[in-house]
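Consider the subject:
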Amino acid sequence: MSVLWTRDELETATEGRFTGPGDIAVSGISIDTRTLSPGDLFIALRGDASDGHRHIAIALEKGAAAVMSHDALASSDPRILLVQDTMAGLQALGRAARARFSGHLIAITGSVGKTTTKEMLRTACSALGRTHAAVASYNNHWGVPLTLARMPRDAQWCISEIGMNHPGEIAPLAAMCRPHTAVITTIGSAHLGHMGSIEAIAEEKAAVIDALLPGGTAIVPDDAVGQTLFSQAAARAGATLWKAGEQPDSTALLTGFAQTGDGSAFTARIAGRDYPVRLPAPGRHLARNALAALAAIIASGGDGTKAAPALDDFLPGAGRGSRRSIMNGVTLLDESYNASVPAIRAALDVLGVIPAQRRIVVLGDMRELGDFADAEHLSLREPVEAVADKVFCCGRHMKLLFDALPPALRGAWSPASGDLAPAVRAALHPGDAVLVKGSLGSRMKDIIAALETTEAPA
């Protein structure tokens, strides 16, 4: 067993104390007893709807090496690490892990493409040395410290994803990470209802640049709102700013882009040197994500000649552009995890290059757009009409888009995804390609589940 944390290290990092004697050696960290492995430290977090303290007995029964608790009455087991507050304890453990890390840390934020770029970095950095990265989209106030606290002692690369929904959320997470290199993937309208303007979103994202260690590098999209904000943040941090994209003067330049339904190829010209890149999935947005990832590695001192070929092994994850065959010959483009206007436009572009007899588009509401919701949904009319042979929608905001489409394109609309799923399934035929996309709260995964079931619903 590889020891992640010792008893003394846990007490020192958290300023807590074990309630009894005994050797403690932790090999992992869990906040959920359903996925806990023997040897883990279980951290009993208290949230709005749950309290991990209720599951301490289960954690110990399942073989937890230790349990972090802030309730002295929760258990008398000597494996209890008693702290003032478990969330603060988790964050302290994350900071301690970052302090002992001697490798290179890359932090990623952006309106769209954070998790995909993180996975590209995981893939490419793994060709250079032991790489640790966030699980799924662990990018919030507990996900970032949990990622850091789980970092193996011998990791050479750490990839941390940083998200936000409201103003002021990125700065403390970025300060915890203290990145050597920062990547901003995009500046778009996600969370526009909370933030108020695209400019405010850019300002919030720029906080990751402020957190760079002196001498670090920020990689930013060359076509994004906020270039002055990015430059000012880099100056404050004593960091270098690299622009990435397709403008001729960008430090990281995407050239020679070509794609088919099976993938894409391009040349990444970074800091004056060319690196050929192939991706086994189409999409200009994926190529730009890969460009930013490769630029971050090269800015960090990594070997681009080893990292670039490794990207040939990258595939989009479930709900984030993965593609598979269903229903005896229907191609499913699964974009069900989340949605914003830029993300939907990018997914429609991919659908357009997939060989198909018909292209079916299934869209659910985009969330957190506030007063901008109607205009944002209606802005999709032109790109949808350019690609779709038939359109299905769910949610009250997507009803606006649905009603604005030509009658020949309208398949069906329903208030909820579960109600829409049977109509979508009934409309599909072998040779079709179907895109399913919507915000997480729109539960488009219910449509994915209905399409992937082996039998049609009665």
In short: The chain has 18 helices and 22 strands. Residues 284-299 form the longest helix (16 residues). The mean pLDDT is 94.
